[in-house]
Amino acid sequence: SSLPPPRTRIFKIIVIGDSGVGKTCLTYRFCADKFPDKTEATIGVDFREKVVEIDGEQIKVQLWDTAGQERFRKSMVQHYYRNVHAVVFVYDVTNAASFRSLPAWIEECRQHALGQEVPRILVGNKCDLRHAAQVSTDVAQQFADAHSMPLFETSAKNPYGNEDGSRNNSDHVEAIF
Ligand code: GDP
Ligand code: MG
């Protein structure tokens, strides 16, 4: 006579960007609050999840990260882009090329019906290395505005500050997802 347990809602977020920008580390930070010593280049899809409580309701947040190899893409791409609730585009602030790749990633999402109607955010990762930054906050903010996305700058490695104890003024990963 007891009620069935409430269904856990699933919220699927895909994390997109060039290889090496820190997608896998960001999903680790969010789901396990850890920075992995070592990541393998993602083969296929990396998948992590965490249950969060929002307004008394359990929400299962699934983070999908892909390396985007051509081999994988042909077979998996449809699956990957299905039932997506939000898209996180990631670049590495110390790697200008990863920032220049963003239009192609945005376009690819758009082709899979993930355009402005889906929540999309832009994340500049590796802000603990800001001294080596190649992409300024101003330039990134202009780009984010032009694509109607909020911008976050963060560090999967050091979410609270730099190794020397100084603040790196970045957004915490928790605040992003
Ligand atoms: P992915 O290919 O986008 O999934 O990138 P990974 O998460 O595998 O990270 C690629 C490399 O960048 C690894 O050597 C990580 O240790 C490093 N890395 C990831 N995030 C950060 C960060 O916030 N700061 C620094 N300094 N290194 C990072
Ligand atoms: Mg990866």
From TrEMBL:
It is a lipid-anchor. It is found in: Endomembrane system. It catalyses: GTP + H2O = GDP + phosphate + H(+). One of its GO terms (cellular component) is Golgi apparatus. Its cofactor is Mg(2+). GO terms for biological process: Rab protein signal transduction. Keywords: GTP-binding, Hydrolase, Lipoprotein, Membrane, Methylation, Nucleotide-binding, Prenylation. Its EC number is 3.6.5.2. The keyword Lipoprotein applies. GO terms for molecular function: G protein activity; GTP binding. It is an enzyme of class 3 (hydrolase). The keyword Cell membrane does not apply. Belongs to the small GTPase superfamily. Rab family. This is small monomeric GTPase. It comes from Triplophysa tibetana. The chain holds residues 17 to 193 of 238 of the full protein.
